[in-house]
Amino acid sequence: MFQDQLAEKVRPFIDLIDYMRSIGIDKELPLPTIAVVGDQSSGKSSVLETLSGVALPRGTGIVTRCPLLLKLCNDRTVKWEAVISYGGKVFEFDEPSEVVRYVEQAQNTLAGKGVGICEDLITLKITSSTVCDLSLIDLPGITRVAVKGQPEDIGVQINNLITKFIKNKRTIILVVVPCNVDIATTEALKMAQEMDPEGTRTLAILTKPDLIDPGAEKNVLEIVHNRVIFLSMGYVIVKCRVQKQIDENMSIARAIEEELEFFQNHEHFRSLVREEKATTKYLAKKLTNALFKQIKTYLPQMSEKIKEQLGEVKHSLSKLEGGPPLEPEEKRKYLIQVITDFNEQITQLSKGDIIVEENLFVLMRKEFTQWMKCLENDKSNYHRVVQQLVDEYDQEHRGSELPGFSNYRVFQHVVQKLVAKLKIPAMTTLQKIRDSLCLHGIFIFSNIVKERIVEQFEMEMQVYTQDEIFHKVMLEAEAHILEEGEIADDKEQDTRSKYPELLKAYYEIVVQRLADQVPMLIRYFILKQSAKIVCSEMLDLLHRDDTDNILQEDSEIGQYRAKLQAQADRLLLANDKISSL
């Protein structure tokens, strides 16, 4: 009937979109399509029957309960054959009369028996020598009131389902409206205007012209000529089989002949045939050309988007790497390789040879600099604190000895108190470095270095340094005092008056020791020793017999990898298909 409506160059483009939808590319990006929208009893089913050449489910209430992708393929060598697929099931048949049964069976499987709806897609491919090359999606008819057995929000469910399809800017909205109603009040056209306010991708079909009240023909002509509600794609008026003709088993071929006769003989509408604004035959031609243009327009963008997404998915897969092998003999080789690679990376990481976002030594150097500033700040407050501690200790602990006699316990006590104050900032430095490395996904044995730092401070509680070192530092301190002209009062010229200078000299030695020793401990035990321990424990895995348990992959990771791989396969197939077009 419509086999001459499409040039051969168009078929590959429609096949391309059908193929991409079949492999699931519509999950990755929106595809150009035609979505059929109409109120219940708008004549939507009759239009689709005429285009497809077969009867579709009919009745009162909601008839289309699942989105139905109708793929029409013209093939002069095939009389008639069909394939219906849904939910992983595929059925082939060659009797047009079986379409209704198979579609109803599919809807009952997906949406359940009754009057509920479902978003799952049913695909019906019809190949015949009498159909046009076209693909479109039939959506449930719009309803406002729930009938017996339907959920109260059935209207909302249907609107949401329709919106899901027509909000895609690449979808041509095919609105079906009866001629005998006020077009401005139809819910279908309102929904189309919400999703396509400029009317650039909406095409309206006017049905039931034989039911127009006498005298209303001029109003219909105004609509068809785009003078009432403007749509860039315009309007087409059609006349399909009425219920009486269906009951009398009038063939669709005969109905198409009568449709042409109706318009050619109609006093008001005969001009629309010449203008190519009437008959289902012209509708088929217009729809096919519209879909072809839509596909050609968006094909370059789709190609770029597919390549972009393919690159992103491949990058994600490369980060996951491959999973463990399934063959037992390969598993041990795989484990050895993984452990070898891991230990090599850990060792290089501990040496600073591998950069992870920011070099580990850079991270630690920042914290070590802060540690040094903390020590310097503590030295700047030294005079006030030391003199106060000496006075307090002398008043509380000096025995019967006369002023001027040395008391080493005072010196030792003050040193221990000053050193103890530095323990907290040292531990804070360790904690900051530990937290920073953990954020980079680097596991460390911080307890080991914590114990060593505690030991270091316990050793510092033993007041000790080489005599030569102490004398040298003391002389430098005394020379500094003489330069500044600091002279103590006679009353304070006992041994205590020298405590601040002695303490300052010794404290300088302590600061120099801790300034280097704490960072060295942290570097050694956090990096070197942690790396050794980790590598040793990893090598121990090779001596275990439970290789399967060791290589058991987290189920979520495996599922995520499988999902990415399936996505990559889809995109690769789509990219190859576009390239071959």
TrEMBL record:
Domain GED, by residue range, is 496-581
Q: Where is this protein localized, as stated in its record?
A: Cytoplasm
Under the heading PROSITE patterns, the entry gives: G_DYNAMIN_1, G_DYNAMIN_2, GED
Q: Which GO terms describe its cellular component?
A: cytoplasm; microtubule; nucleus; plasma membrane; presynapse
Q: Which GO terms describe its biological process?
A: defense response to virus; receptor internalization; synaptic vesicle budding from presynaptic endocytic zone membrane
Question: In terms of one coarse class, where is the protein primarily found?
Answer: cytoplasm
Q: Residue ranges of the Dynamin-type G domain?
A: 28-300
Superkingdom of origin organism: Eukaryota
One short Pfam name that applies is GED
User: From the Swiss-Prot or TrEMBL record, what is one GO molecular function term?
Assistant: microtubule binding
Keyword terms of this UniProt record: Cytoplasm, GTP-binding, Nucleotide-binding
Per the similarity annotation, which family is this? Answer: Belongs to the TRAFAC class dynamin-like GTPase superfamily. Dynamin/Fzo/YdjA family.
Tell me the protein's name. Answer: Uncharacterized protein
Record the organism.
Oncorhynchus kisutch
> What's the name of its gene?
LOC109880987
